[in-house]
Amino acid sequence: MYTLYYSQGACSVATQVVLRELGQEVTLIDVQQLSDFEKINAVGTVPVLIDGDKTLTEGAAIMLYLLNKHSSALFPESARHQATQDIMFANATMHPAYGRLFFLGQNVINEKIKQETLNTAAVSINRLWKIIESQLANKRFLGGDSPSAADIMLTVYSSWGAYFPVDIVIGDKTLAMIIAVQAMPSFIKTAKAEQILSAK
Question: Is the dihedral of CA 111, 162, 10, 158 positive or negative?
Fold first, then answer.
């Protein structure tokens, strides 16, 4: 069994969904309820995955660790290079783009400057979503006919724009992908699990 340190609505949601898709049992620990999480991860970020005596950090590294350990259509042998590239795009390109919104929202005091910089950050995010839209021109998911780990990651990130007064534009094909991922039983179960744990 795995142990996953998470924060509600954060990128650790994708790790939970993937663990469930892989049929793996997981114990969840909400870092918001811990006072010493930095002892587990000095950087203070989620997800953190415990597998026996291994402590793994960094979302993409955890994702690739799990997908290499457990065979799944989320990470097909025939398209492993593309699947890896898609995971890295989600984690290293799209995730930081949204991260700028959170940084600006928390650290810029002047409201006029804050809105201007948030708008600039949103332009960059919209450009990335256009790239995803073009990649989905002839397929339902980045992974083809079925969801990939990257589809799950991007679906989680797509909800973050709602926290800010910006216009995030997501194309029709990308929106259809997001809706399909959100309808996955593993995604629904993850959302319910987080709600239950946060209410304790």
Answer: negative
- Mean pLDDT by groups of 10 residues along the chain of 200 residues: 94 96 95 92 96 96 97 89 96 97 97 98 98 97 93 97 97 98 96 79
What token pair was written down for 68?
């290499």
Domain made up of 2-73+185-198: CATH architecture? 3-Layer(aba) Sandwich (3.40)
Q: CA 105 → CA 50, 94, 101, 114, distances in Å?
A: 32, 17, 6, 7
Q: What is the DSSP string of 60-123?
A: HHHHHHHHHHS--TTS-GGGHHHHHHHHHHIIIIIHHHHHHHHHHHHH---HHHHHHHHHHHHH
